[in-house]
Amino acid sequence: MSNEYSNLEQVRLEKIEELRAEGIEPYPHRVERTHTSVEAVQAFEAVENDENPEEIQATLVGRLRSMRPMGKISFAHIEDGHGRIQLFFRANDIGKEQIDFFNHAFDLGDFIQASGRIFRTRTGEISIWVESFRMLSKAVTPLPAAKDEVVDGEVIQHATLADPETRFRQRYADLAVNADVRKIFRTRAAIVRALQNFMDDNEFLEVETPILQPIYGGAAAEPFVTHHNQLKQELYLRISFELYLKRLLVGGFERVYEIGRDFRNEGVSFKHNPEFTQLEFYWAYADYNQVMELTENMLAFVADQVFGKRTFTFQGHEINLDPPWERIELRQGLIDATGIDINQHMTAESLAAAMKTKGIEVKPDSARGKLIDALISNHLEPNLIQPTFLYNYPRDISPLAKSILGDPTTVERFEGFLGGMELCNAFTELNDPLDQEARFLEMGRDYAEDDEERHPMDDDYLRAMRYGMPPNGGFGMGIDRLTMLLTDQHSIREVILFPHLRSKE
């Protein structure tokens, strides 16, 4: 860390030295607290209309967010994790020396402990009439602000924190000054709790599976590679929970789920981060139709629990989560969107030619599955604003899904879309070990060595399948994208506390 301090930081460092010279520790070991800001207000309001109201004494703690010295009195606002409350200092009560000490030694951003009685000012604001106070933590670097504040008609100007990249790099400062950002992450936590409650209520068992895996699988993505020194073994950060969760079905669990981190060594965009949070579940004896119904009910439950309603606005669109969602067969959806019938083009060469005749850009040497993915992403997905399931996908891009009866080229898979974004992905899972082995071999043969779609052979997973895997439906959903949608955030970085960013030059 650099020891080059700004002039303002130098002034605050000098104040730390002054405090210690006077025997005052600016970072004490112990803190006293009787109420949060909200509890203090509630305690006062509960008695203020009584005939002989009880005097409420309180000790509060928090960060100084405003200071207004006015001669023999001073006003300040402190903020804790629950809200904000005003402090009132008067020289007649604590002495002019203490008023001067507060005005000189304390700065915006410092943490303070203040004790006194709760009262309501003539302007109607519930406040603490301070009888004693002390420093809890001296802030060396001044906090920026989300915007200039207006307090009692007076504009208080601050250095503002508005640049998105600075906000993401210094999330601690962003959270400290932006109450709306803190609200996003409280909402995210509530969304995760609601998902857990829904899964638990539906008799799914929450489990944990390995993050470090000897063979990556369960999705089409490039993994991060690491090395275990003692075992002399290459390992991968997981790209999916799938293959381990399905092993648990072999072991006798019928409904399992996990909420945790996946890692994919892929591009960064407004909807992609190298590490992200997923919910995955696997449900024995269910198929993709039952999983569709569960998905609709799950999202409606989350909306009810977190927001008390099922409609929300995302990027100017009002979206309704009431079941049932619209269902569109993928083949027909692509015909409607592009005029191309993928079932008439069973090779990459044929499909690429059809795309070129429609003026659609084709990446050279792309496998058929890659071309279909591009058609979905560029021509279908952006128009799926209201909750929609696309279902029945080509086997080329679904190596772990069960084929439709009588059509080996198409599998029982669906993806759920909201707000023009893919939100979730689900299959009737393949449970035939011989078919699965053939699919692994096919994916390894048809895709280049460095292609992220190439799926490695997982012999242990095949061994597990050979013991007998029950028919099952599986599901995966990005928690970050769900939070984006429900909090109306355009960028995934707004809903990840510490998103990955390029190194500063």
For the structure shown, list the relevant keywords.
BirA Bifunctional Protein, domain 2; 15 helices; five-stranded mixed beta barrel; single chain; alpha+beta; elongated; 505 residues; OB fold (Dihydrolipoamide Acetyltransferase, E2P)
Number of domain modules: 2
* Main β-sheet description: 9 strands, mixed
CATH architecture of the largest domain: 2-Layer Sandwich
Helix content: 25-40%
Mean pLDDT across residues: 92
Radius of gyration: 29 Å
Query: What percent of residues are in strands?
Result: 25-35%
Number of strands: 21
What is the CATH class designation of the largest domain? Answer: Alpha Beta
Distance between the termini: 16 Å
| Content-based structural category | alpha+beta
From the spread of the alpha carbons, the general shape counts as elongated
Q: Care to describe what's here?
A:
The protein has 505 residues and is of the alpha+beta class. It folds into two domains: 7-160, OB fold (Dihydrolipoamide Acetyltransferase, E2P); 186-209 and 239-325 and 386-494, 2-Layer Sandwich (BirA Bifunctional Protein, domain 2), CATH 3.30.930.10. The protein is 33% helix and 27% strand. It contains 15 helices and 21 strands. The strands form five sheets. Strands 8, 12, 13, 16, 17, 18, 19, 20 and 21 form a nine-stranded mixed β-sheet that branches. The longest helix has 23 residues, at 179-201. The protein is elongated. Mean pLDDT is 92; it is low at 155-159.
Summarize the helices and strands and which ones pair or pack:
Elements: H1 7-21, H2 37-47, E1 57-70, E2 73-79, E3 84-90, H3 91-94, H4 96-105, E4 111-120, E5 126-137, E6 149-151, E7 154-156, H5 164-169, H6 171-177, H7 179-201, E8 205-206, E9 212-213, E10 225-228, E11 233-237, H8 242-250, E12 255-263, E13 275-284, H9 288-307, E14 311-314, E15 317-320, E16 326-329, H10 330-338, H11 348-357, H12 368-380, E17 388-394, E18 403-404, E19 407-418, E20 421-428, H13 433-446, H14 459-466, E21 472-478, H15 479-487
Parallel strand pairs: 3-5, 8-12, 16-17
Antiparallel strand pairs: 1-2, 1-4, 2-3, 4-5, 6-7, 9-11, 10-11, 12-13, 13-21, 14-15, 17-19, 18-19, 19-20, 20-21
